Amino acid sequence: MRKLHSIFTSVLTALIFCYTTTAQHKIFVANGGDDSNKGTISKPLKTLDRAFQQVLEFREKGYAEVVEIFIREGRYNFHQAIKLDSNYSNIRISAYKNEAVSFFGGVSIPVNAIKSVKLNGVSDTVLAINLKAYGLDDYGNIRSVGFARPYGASWAELFVNKKPFHLSRWPNKGMIPIEEVLDKGSVPRNDDFSNLGGKFRYDSLRVDAWKYESDPWIAGYFMWGYADDMVSVKEINDTERTITTKIPTLYGFGDQKPWRKWYGVNILRELDANGEYYIDRSRGMLYFRSEEDVKQVEISVLEDPFFQIEGVKNVAVKGITFECSRGLGIAMDATENVTIENCVFKNLGSLGITVGQGITPFKKYRHEGTGTATSGLVGSLQQHLYVNTTFNRLAGTNNMIRGCVFYQLGAGGVSLGGGDRLSLAPGNNIVENCEFYDLNRIEKSYRPAVHLTGVGNKVRHCEMYDLPSMAILMHGNNHLIEYNYIHDVCLEVEDQGAVYYGRDPSERGSVIRYNYFKDIPDHYNTCAVYHDDGACGLKVQSNVFYKAGKWNVLIGGGSDNAYINNLFVDTKFGIHIDNRLENWSKGLLDEEGLYYKRLMAVHYDQPPYSEAYPELSRYFEDKPSIPKRNILKDNSFVNMEESILDGNKEWLDMDASNELMNQEPVPIDKYEQEVFKLAKLKGTAIDSIGLYKN
């Protein structure tokens, strides 16, 4: 009997221990909690900092199992990044039972602080708030943003009723043409670093008054339609009607092209429209206009990521809204099996998530260069990749971003690294079932919904729309882009595509399949899939292209691209192909030129490249200036305005399996139904494209 009692006691003790440790592995955080509590559902902690400290305490006791951090409904203010290293592996951070949880990087101002005031030079009354009265004296720096400039934190932004307002500007919408350029200024793209601004004429009387502004800026597309920029104004001469800038723009200033346009920004006198604001930095006064009743006023402050995650495994972040900051949402690198799921990223000054290291922002403004790899930011990554094409971002593997929404952001959605270009080892990092729209409030061009880098990463079942520039920018090898609905993109730019890659013949093996490309404007040179400057080795299969650009496809001199079983509907041209490497881009093939450097960087004629891409090993012996082995098979072209092919048939193997069709006119509201019918006949899985219910 004594022996049985001993056994019973031992079992009971073990059960109690198991129950206790299991209970301890759930930590609850609530706004009404207290950090002296144990972190149970009835006695929650108050702060996330204390919750993560408790995780470390568990680890010190030898508990290696999963720790769940449940966050109760409410807003949690962030003043700096929470940094998670390898000590925080095996944790789950989630909103408790789908309660509304907000991670907030700003300051709320009570609406009773709003006054109506009349300002000199400003029509009508405006709304005003004394920010200094609420402890706000750091408004960030208005900085140059645009093509070839680094990603970075925004200046202080205003959000009214959760809607982003913008710096006061003219014109209120759109841009105006650049008049005569008198001085294009320095041209950093040509290694001219003399830092001289440009000078051009304007023809509007209202600009005359801007000479009294304390800090006026101009933004727009100053030379090329793919290169936006924003620069400060040095002088406005109302006698000569000229604007002179303090600093140069990358390509210099130009005129006489339809995309060369500009607008003024941070102009107090132009505070005349709903959704505009201006901060008088010397006085700490915020001025703005709102046509709707103001119920919430928020100012962004945080410049760090909310989470900076490095070297962890098996971490999940679920059901959280990240909002109202100047920086990005989550930065992670060297991670494995990290899942960001069912989160919302909105009202941020930069992008939503970066996976992989970035590059410390260059001090000198230049098109490309070599920088320092850094965690927690994106910075000058794109400029570094131009020179260092095999740069391994150490992003980690098997990470997933799923079921998230990205909108009202400043500079794009996700920067997704992973994999190694030298070994062709895949990252298998995935963006899936995410919605992206309105991502470029501040930084426009080359700030896509997803920037794919590295090897073997995936973007699938996403919807991307309402973007001024590209949806997906691709660098690297063996990526997969599938089941995405991409529409209403490239709304502002010239010479871009919804999916874009180029200038590196070693970047091969990627696949674009089962996507729906729709409603890409054709007022400039735009397309759905852009193989720029000799881009090679892409397989595009079973996609639907409907009113998708001036051309659905642009192959800019490259080889070994395959288009199989696609449906092309209602555009000027189906496919453009050219031989630019024989003429205006032939410098790319110079001895020890750009292509030589990029191919040598990956040892293109040795394994694994020579085995993965056998045709690549003879690249220079195979007359690379002439496009070849581009395949067009089993495609259908419906109602082409001009022709299937814009280019020489010798550069594209187009056999009899391709068909040209002319559909009978149908009512506009039923036309897309007809497109879907045709798509189903071709087996393009049109019903599976886009977001799925999560």
Quick rundown:
The chain has 694 residues and is mainly beta. Strand 10 and strand 11 form a beta hairpin. Pfam families: Beta_helix (PF13229).
Plain-language structure description:
With 694 residues, this protein is mainly beta. Among the domains are: 1-72, no CATH class; 170-270; 492-577 and 629-694, no CATH class. Helix content is 10%, strand content 35%. It is built from 6 helices and 59 strands. The strands form 7 sheets. It has a 23-stranded parallel beta sheet that branches. The radius of gyration is 27 Å and the shape is globular. The N and C termini lie far apart (56 Å).
Shape: globular
Uncertain parts: 1-24
The fraction of residues assigned to DSSP E strands is 35-45%
Could you give a short account of the major beta sheet?
23 strands, parallel
| Average predicted confidence as pLDDT | 95
Number of helices: 6
Cα-to-Cα separation, first versus last residue: 56 Å
Give the beta-strand count: 59
Question: Class by helix and strand content?
Answer: mainly beta
What helical percentage do the residues reach? under 10%
Calculate Rg over CA atoms: 27 Å
Domain Right handed beta helix: 395-566
Protein name: Right handed beta helix domain-containing protein
Organism: Zhouia amylolytica AD3
Describe the secondary structure blueprint for this structure:
Elements: H1 2-24, E1 26-29, H2 48-60, E2 67-71, E3 74-77, E4 82-84, E5 91-95, E6 101-104, E7 106-109, E8 115-118, E9 125-130, E10 158-160, E11 163-164, E12 166-167, E13 169-170, E14 176-177, E15 181-183, E16 199-201, E17 217-221, E18 228-237, E19 242-245, E20 261-265, E21 276-280, E22 285-288, E23 297-300, E24 307-310, E25 313-318, E26 320-325, E27 330-333, E28 335-341, E29 344-348, E30 353-355, E31 358-359, E32 373-374, H3 381-387, E33 396-397, E34 400-402, E35 405-409, E36 414-416, E37 419-420, E38 425-426, E39 430-432, E40 435-437, E41 450-452, E42 458-460, E43 463-465, E44 472-474, E45 480-482, E46 485-487, E47 496-502, E48 511-513, E49 516-520, E50 526-532, E51 539-541, E52 544-548, E53 551-556, E54 562-564, E55 567-578, H4 594-601, H5 609-612, E56 631-633, E57 636-646, E58 653-654, E59 659-661, H6 668-681
Parallel strand pairs: 1-2, 2-5, 3-6, 4-24, 5-25, 6-26, 12-21, 24-27, 25-28, 26-29, 27-30, 28-33, 28-34, 29-35, 30-36, 34-39, 35-40, 36-41, 39-42, 40-43, 41-44, 42-45, 43-46, 44-47, 45-48, 46-49, 47-50, 48-51, 49-52, 50-53, 51-54, 52-55, 53-55, 54-56, 55-57, 56-58, 57-59
Antiparallel strand pairs: 7-23, 8-9, 9-22, 10-11, 10-23, 13-20, 14-20, 15-16, 16-19, 17-18, 17-20, 18-19, 21-22, 31-32, 37-38
InterPro entries: Beta_helix, PbH1, Pectin_lyas_fold, Pectin_lyase_fold/virulence
Protein name: Right handed beta helix domain-containing protein
Domain Right handed beta helix: 395-566
